[in-house]
Amino acid sequence: MSDRRFSPLRRLFLVPAAAVLCFMLLPMTVVVLIALGESATYEFPPRGLTLHWFSNLLHAGPLLNALFLTSLPLALTVAAASLVVGTLAAVGLTRGRFLGRSALEVFFLTPVVFPQILLGVALFLLFARANVPLTLVTLGIGHVVICTPYVIRAVLAGIGGIDPRIEEAARNLGAPPARAFMMATLPLLRSSMLSGAVFAFIVSFSDVNIALFLSAGDTTTLPIRILAEMEWNNDPTIAAAATLQVSIISVLLILVQRFIGTVRA
Amino acid sequence: MRARTGLLFVPYLLLLLAFLVVPIAGLVEISARNQSVTSIGGVGLTMANYQRVFEGFYLDIIFDTVRLAAIATLIGATLAYPLAYVIVRSQPLARTVLTCLVMVPLMTSVVVKVFGWFILLGRGGPAVRMLQKLGIEVQTLLNTEPSVVVGLVEFALPFMVFSLVPALDRISPAVEEAAANLGATPFQTFRLVILPLSASGLTSGALLCFGISSSAYVVPAIMGGHAVRMIAQQIYDDVLVAFDWPAAAAFSIALLVLLSVLIFAALRASRRATDV
Fold first, then answer.
1. Which of A88, A102, B56, B269 measures 20 to 30 Å from B144, CA to CA?
2. Is domain B57-275 annotated with CATH 1.10.3720.10?
3. DSSP H stretches of helix in chain B
């Protein structure tokens, strides 16, 4: 915790920090205001407020399909798969005592720092050469690779905060090891697992770099659809779709922050 | 039990091998092939693709990419410091709110952010109209190097802030107080105390920012138009437009090597710095 009684530097930095924060939030705010504005073009600042563009979204087939038939089901499935694979990996990492354990941990987290665009290209060429058609499954595989590290990180942090004596006590009371883990430790990991899964969902939901190469035709995700349409169609309905995206992500982040406590990316 | 639970990581290990290691190995293989109309993966064995990467056209793209990513990283680090510092030195509630406000742009799709810049800086947008009122005749502020830098900085900033926060968190306010008691001005305190003590966060943040800026596709593609060409755009066009997969693969490997060398050098430098 910080001591606020003394910090002249904080006072000095307050205005620059506020300016930087505004700069960071500026483009997203513009998109939201365009979506709420009355003008039928990208007019900024907007005149008058309306929800017309959101109801218009219901008639915008491609955007709606991208959101409800591709992005949302994809992100939910990817989050679930990442949760299972990632939790297993994190538990395996902390339970196993073997040579190269820390190297393996670093390897498991590489997808976070590996240039996503290169992973997209590499997977695209892999599937193309193996004559595997691009479907939601291939896209999902790419997403699970980049999303699982977020689950691993959250669960590893969670395991670190659990007193090992709780599981020991369960075992001393006669529970077989697997049962002791399931009954004593796993419930304590629930919030870490949930926050990891939420992050996996968000990473999949907002990904462009993988989808740029792996989404095709009927598996176009929302970000790719927005990217394709925003330059050529001067239509606030696209801004409404983008606003929906930002809102879903913001609500999830606030819920994680509120109910699970501080999370860090 | 220990031996068996240790095996729980195997599914993810296999996943990474099959869909990270194998594809990259495939990339290396394709990069050493001749382009062919009969075989999609290319034929023969050649170093010609790498020679091409280090010739005029591709080399210019590499230099431009490194330059723009470096500028964006420098500006990003400068802008991130005040914000990260204020977050760390805030009371719990303000800290939570500020963290959320940085988290949202961090996790939001880059497409949405670029969309916002496209409206703000593009044709008939507010920025252009303001300049026209001042008598400066411009049609658009997009499609220039500065516009790409703006996009890259905004994209990289949250990553930088969240790299600096843990490093700044480790600095006790008492240290700053001591510096001030010894007569340091706030600026001196920052330069002589805060900056060196948070160097580790600065290094990792700068590497992260450089990495994502130099491999960015959406920002230069939308905000740079035809005026700016960065590595990722060229890779995308070579793969999906020109179908020149060997060139794209060689270029991808070049980017990967560039980033690896940089990370290795930075880690060594920071280790030497902490040894002293």
1. B56
2. yes
3. 2-5, 10-16, 22-31, 48-53, 56-88, 92-107, 110-121, 126-133, 145-169, 173-181, 186-189, 195-197, 199-214, 218-223, 231-240, 245-275
